[in-house]
Protein 1
Amino acid sequence: MTDQPKRPDKRPDTRLVHGGRRAEWLGGMVNVPVSRTSTVLFEDVASMEAAYPPRDGTLSYGRNGTPTQWSLAEALTELEPGAAGTRLFPSGAAAVSFALASVLDPGDELLMVDSAYLPTRTFCDQGLKRYGIATRYYDPRATAAEVEALLSDSTKAIFMESPGSLTFEVQDVPGICAVARQRGIATLLDNTWATPLFFQALPRGIDLSILACTKYVSGHADVMLGSVTTTEAHWEKLNRTARLYGQSVSPDDSYLAARGLRTMGVRLRRHEDSAIKIARWLQGQPRVADVLHPALKACPGHHFWKRDFTGSSGLFAIVLKDADEAAAVRFVESLGLFGIGYSWGGFESLALPVHPERARSFKRDWPGAMVRLHIGLEDPDDLVADLAGAFQAIA
Ligand SMILES: Cc1ncc(COP(=O)(O)O)c(C=O)c1O
């Protein structure tokens, strides 16, 4: 969809509610309905042939989408001022992989942040490597000048994830993008933690902004979906790459993600308020050595968070003082309201022991085992009481 956002003058919360709801797709209803199809029937051969090359807004074949998928894509595009379009993928991991594949060719080098989500790292080390694309990791605490010093003639892309997975360092995204743009290097950001509501990536210089919509966009722990929103310069290449590899998402998942998107503003602010309240409480607990939360002063890159973000979400980590792995496991297993499980971004609280040191090139020393928390939409006082009980269990 290369139409520019329809409501650039409206505030983000208004765009969350109205984005992608074109009258011709709604058919008089509030939500764009689930349109399932493989085959599309045409009046005649000429109109069938005119539907190609496929484009959003014109029915051609199920793999190329129906109004259900186009509407979600357009709503996500409207959240990033200046975006040319959004392509949906069957998971966040697929969105990351295809975004990278669309900007890199054999012989190129990628600069990848060391704190990237682990499957992103695995894709680089195994997937890109097979195609003759080299990955060099850089410290998430690196300044823009330090990143610039790492560039070589073959560097064609810089990938950021801010804050980083598990350790939550916030990067100087605008600074790194300015360096990259001067040299024609593509910039990619995994923006899943903040979403475009709390960090507008394209206005800050990013070329391809990636979301695991599985998390806050869907918001109910019942959908796998990813998206990539790009500038005009990267839009055709992303589309071509996705089509080449037959990428397609179901209308049912798109519908659920769009339904989640409408309430993302209120959900995220509730996640934010509760997470900050609980993070501050945790800072005062004797068994907590560190709270890794971008909105807290001690978090590396906190000043970038303050400068560039309009909010924080519900995911952060704690370091348990002098605790070994067994104590972290006992802590997590002693919690009653926090589920034990991967993922985050749903309505429910989650906890799990994490091990950033196992797959990092730039190690940091931690004074104990680490636990990642996702603060859900429960009453935060109940969550505090639950955490207090778990501290007693490991006392
Ligand atoms: C930061 C981040 N990016 C991408 C992904 C991948 O998303 P998905 O699980 O939808 O493939 C995840 C999943 O946990 C994630 O945490």
Protein 2
Amino acid sequence: MKIAMIGTGYVGLVSGVCFSDFGHEVVCVDKNPEKIKMLAAGQVPIFEPGLDALIEKNVAAGRLSFSTDLAAAVDGAEAVFIAVGTPTRRGDGHADLSYVMAAAEEIARAITGYTVVVTKSTVPVGTNRQVKQVIAKANPKADFDVASNPEFLREGAAIDDFMRPDRVIVGVQNERAAEVMAEIYRPLFLRDFPIVTTDLESAEMIKYAANAFLATKITFINEIAALCEKVGADIKQVSKGMGLDGRIGNKFLHAGPGYGGSCFPKDTKALARIGQDHAVPMQITETVIKVNDETRRRMVDKITDMMDGQLAGKTVAVLGVTFKPNTDDMREAPSLTIVPALIGAGAKVRVVDPQGRREGEALLPGVQWVEDAYKAAQKADAVVILTEWNEFRALDLKRLAKKMAHPALADLRNIYSARDAKRAGFLRYVSIGRSDYIAESV
Ligand SMILES: NC(=O)c1ccc[n+]([C@@H]2O[C@H](COP(=O)([O-])OP(=O)(O)OC[C@H]3O[C@@H](n4cnc5c(N)ncnc54)[C@H](O)[C@@H]3O)[C@@H](O)[C@H]2O)c1
């Protein structure tokens, strides 16, 4: 099949590359010429494990190419995917659909022959019908259908998620479009991955409901963690005991500094707005947004308390600033709240992140970037683990403590324990939902 992928960001690039690996002929389009230039030169503009090799393979096979020319890519394509951004609209929390609608108009003008226009971006219920209207208005002669195909890949594990999905959701209005979508996903269908066909509205709703539910699960465990700290329970034991219940499951039950990233914050906000617009307030989701904001602020208090309220003139080493490991994505990362708060309180902040620097330099002004955790800890007053990259999961805590002026560790991902920290020579250790450790000598 001939496919055009409009938008070559985290989702568009991974989806386009994986479709080409299925054997389809794919052109990935982006209006950002820098991105396309890089890709055409064999460089990958984002960090996603395994993506570079897959691009190389499919470009070499002649199935995958990159272009800024939307019209040429759409011309003759059987399916055109819209995978542009849908960020939070400034001011009101709604999803900003301007990129989706602009892409739809451009596509309309370039359509030749029967085409299925598939929205992969996360969009509010009703958007696919709107896309249909926009295309029909811009090109009344266009022979097309729309389809909704929300994406569930996780950054950092995106290729595996795309190639071995829990399910594929396809919202369509008729059999003709359903057949084109079935053909595109045939390799997954043949391997028995569930393909769920729905109407347009249900497909759109599934994506928001799934993300809001996952954000709720994370926020729930973070709130329980806050209570654990007060009553002397241990959140790790609580999560384990809860997660073994098959009805609950152990995923997304790890207490931490609050959810972030390119999806949960904006999608929960958008769902809350959709609910308000229809006079069905999404009260749980609204509370989740509020509790998540509080969780982030609680992290700043935690670090401040660990340092007896004295951050002015102190040196703090922050390990990990991307919103999660194995990505370079900094969108809505907890570090963007926590690091400026530390700097605002007068601390000098050193930052280490295996992939975050390129994006993070502009977003975290005033920090010093360092190559590794031990250099960052040199004469520091506190180390804060913010993102659980593998290299921060196996730190030599003794070596780290020795380098520091005042060995104090805020482990906001619960990687270590008070016992580990005490043995390594730390005088203070705080984590999430567990008892703190403060040496008697302090
Ligand atoms: N990032 C994720 O993990 C993830 C997961 C599932 C769903 N989604 C959804 O997928 C969508 C895309 O997310 P993303 O993270 O890939 O966004 P992104 O910002 O990384 O990429 C969007 C790309 O679209 C390009 N673009 C915008 N308008 C264009 C146009 N008219 N023509 C060509 N290119 C255009 C931009 O230049 C940009 O490169 C969003 O709706 C998001 O909610 C994201």
Protein 3
Amino acid sequence: MTAPIKLLSARSAWHPTALLVVLTVWLGTVGNFPFWMAIWKLPETEGFRALTTMASLWLILLGLVGWFLCLWVWPRWLKPAAVAMLLTVTSSSYFMLTYGVVIDPSMLANVVQTDVREVRDLLSWPMLMALVVGVILPGIWLWRQPVRAVNAKPLILRQLGVSLLALLVALGLFWMSFQDIASLTRNHKHLRYMINPFNSVYAVTRLFVGQAAQAAQPLQAIGDDAKVVAPVSTADQAPLVVFVLGETARAANFGLSGYARDTTPQLRKLQTQGDLTYFSDVKSCGTSTQASVPCMFSHLGKAAHEGNQQRFESLLDVLQRAGLAVLWLDNQSGCKGVCDRVPNVSTTALNVPEFCKDGECLDEVMLHELPKQLAALDPAKRAKGTVVVMHQMGSHGPAYYKRSPDAIKQFLPECSSHALQNCPPEQIVNAYDNSILYADHFIAKTVHWLQAQSRPTALMYMSDHGESLGEKGLYLHGMPYSMAPKEQTHVPMVVWLSKPMQRQRGWSMSCLQAQSGKALSHDNLFHSVLGLAQVQTRLAKPELDIFSACSAAR
Ligand SMILES: [Zn+2]
């Protein structure tokens, strides 16, 4: 292949379409390295049949990439477009190879919502190497090639002709090997999301078209009938409910779930004292913050939320409308729109030296800020009751080792690289488990603070999604839900009620304990918080409110 290309470039400048063909071969072959690796590793790709399947897949892919490029890459922007394609395909390949992820709309949404500190966590030497090999070297080569000036009309006709031919070849071959390919993609759905550059193109189109359509919708108010059912007579009887929105904590490594390591000693102590219940079978709505958080605070529930194109207010709007004081404290990359209309504070802006370093804060910073931020809320609303959300940094990866202070770390040595696959698996787990230990410390410390308040208080904790720590070659999270492993969707959930709260409501912890093994999900959050905050609205579904059983049992 290389010899005729050299000859051609030495003799004359490239015909633009010929240069596109070279780019097509690069993108279809090197640019799809993770895809070919994945195919190669499949159990069914063995023997002669496997070779023919791979060969026809390769030709189909070349045909499709050629068709796609010939459609829109014209000489005027050939070189920048080629570099953009190299960059897209290389970054997508790098993340697929490094973390075992695939590229779909929700993964892309994750990337788009990522803030600077998270990007910093992902940068590493292997990533730089990938960029050199996949973008810089081929990019420089391509940029330096002379391209022949060709008359527009014949060029357009010829290139569209090549495009059509490439598509026909691809479709013909696909038709001929349909049986093999169909069974391959049926059995291994993730392969579809590994094909560069179509995975990225599909994700971008789906995401931005979807987002634009939703953004154009008017915001719809929900729970316009919301009211507090049992208003308290004195301000010191007004309940204070804290919801700790966990980050990337998976149930599998949560001490209370029966994990071999006791990663939650302080919560266990509270459980032994009888005021805390751990829920062992809770499913997340999504596998990323971007997918889960809006879903958790939506009245729709997972099934309806996913197909929904309308814009609705969130749980926090309903609580506020009922007259309660509401506060969102954020130690993460924002509340994904759910706290836009209630008082909200980001810890990065506060920059408390005791807990923050290099623009990142340990979760305790939120507790440190809590009394001051509560005092700043409307006193008339506080007299009715308060709901606070604390959005944790939790176990956000890949830099797990940054998620716990030295004093907390018990499991050593830790993986202190961002390129997880370079660390021994046990060091990744050590760093992750230390982050759970710190979450245990943070939640228990919040409970102790709530215990010291004279009013009825409660704490509810739920993680937004889980995490893969190298099982089946997967790292991090964000797999499409239908193919996500349990590690990414099985999340821990905890409820603690103060004695004054138990007395005020007439609830016994045993009625919560009775539900601790029930199959629950993020769908229960909206309705349970309404129950906990004693807010009545026709949106409320008592069957999804874990506290309704306790009220009924009174
Ligand atoms: Zn998350």
